[in-house]
Amino acid sequence: MHERPTILYVDDEEPNLFIFAGLFERHYEVITSSSSTEALALFKSRPITVILADQRMPEMTGVEFLEQALVLAPDAVRILLTAYSDIEAVIAAINSGQVYRYIAKPWNNHDLKMTIDSAVHVHQLQRENKELLKHLSEHNQLLEQKVEHRTRELDEKNKENERLMQRELTLMALQLAQKNELLEALENRLKQVIQSTTAVLDDIAKEIHSSITDEKAWEPFEKQFYNANPEFLQRLYNLCPTLTPMEIKVCTLLKINLSTKEIAHILSVSSDAVEFHRLNVRKKFDIPRSQNLTSFLSHL
Fold first, then answer.
1. Per the domain annotation, does 288 fall within a domain?
2. How far is it, in rounded angstroms, from Cα 54 to Cα 81?
């Protein structure tokens, strides 16, 4: 069985309290008090569903009593019993939210019962709404935790994919450097032979050199690099739109932490040429000597 609603009726006229209790104690848990001060102390000992107070009482008016009850028992539904001569005070109390309804005295038993039933229903709806809001808040909090957890998982996965792409990119660059270093060594050996042999070998050396400087060998690496670092080129142009194609290539290889020698092999230029381009990039970006250029590019 559900707990019966508790109704508190405060009135300094004892006969009214006796009549009220006789009418409604079959339906509710009824508490009556002829002292508004003593009635306020009741809120500390038990929950109250509906409060009824007479407007004209010696210690304080019914509106004043309900104002204090609003603080002590904000969830209780408040009803004022009053004569028609006090209607202005009643309207003010209703407009300020202190009173749910008012009942004119002398009351009609049936109307009073209907009003109290309605107040009990309102109290029940308010309690259910609070429970629903509480459950909704807990549910939303759980969803936020799940979303946060899933977001962290996705971030970790993206970071791992990025690390794999960077490792693959570095491997491609080193393979390209090794390939070109081998071809350069072969070219130099052939040049030595060409000096003392036929013109056919000179043609072979030219073909090898052409393979070293062929832009097509650079394209797969460039494509993979910009897949892994899609915003890097735009950031370079934002910092300095006058970068030359060779300076952009040098910046690209420095970002993945390659040495001057490795860059020279990849681009088929001398180490001095690489250093020259590095110096130009540093000047265009206005980077002080105390700052490492490779570190600066790696964080773009």
1. yes
2. 5
* Strand-pair partners of 54: 81
Burial class of residue 188, CB neighbours in 10 A (0-12, 13-18, 19+): exposed
Tokens for 157, please give them: 């996965």
Band of pLDDT at residue 222, cut at 50, 70 and 90: confident
Whether the CB-CB separation of 50 and 116 falls below 8 Å is answered with yes
- Same domain for 152 and 89? no
For residue 47, say if its preceding peptide bond is cis, omega within 30 degrees of 0.
Answer: no
Are 101 and 153 contained in the same domain? no
Domain that holds residue 67: 6-107
Q: What is the mean pLDDT of residues 166-183?
A: 80
Helix (H, G, I), strand (E, B) or coil at 45: coil
Q: What is the pTM of this model?
A: 0.47
- Residue range 42-65, pLDDT digits in tens: 998 889 999 999 999 999 999 999
Cα distance between residue 102 and residue 86, in whole Å: 11
Which is nearest to 244 in space by CA: 283, 210, 299? 283
Q: What are phi and psi of 290, to 5 degrees?
A: -70, -15
What is the C-alpha separation between 34 and 38, in angstroms, rounded? 8
How does pLDDT run across 122-159, given as a tens digit for each residue? Answer: 999 998 988 888 888 888 888 888 888 888 888 888 88
Q: What is the CATH number of the domain that holds 287?
A: 1.10.10.10
The number of beta carbons lying within 10 Å of the beta carbon of residue 45 is 7
Determine the Cα–Cα distance for residues 200 and 209; give it in Å rounded to an integer: 15
57 burial type by CB count under 10 A (0-12 exposed, 13-18 middle, 19+ buried): buried
Q: 185 with 282, same domain? A: yes
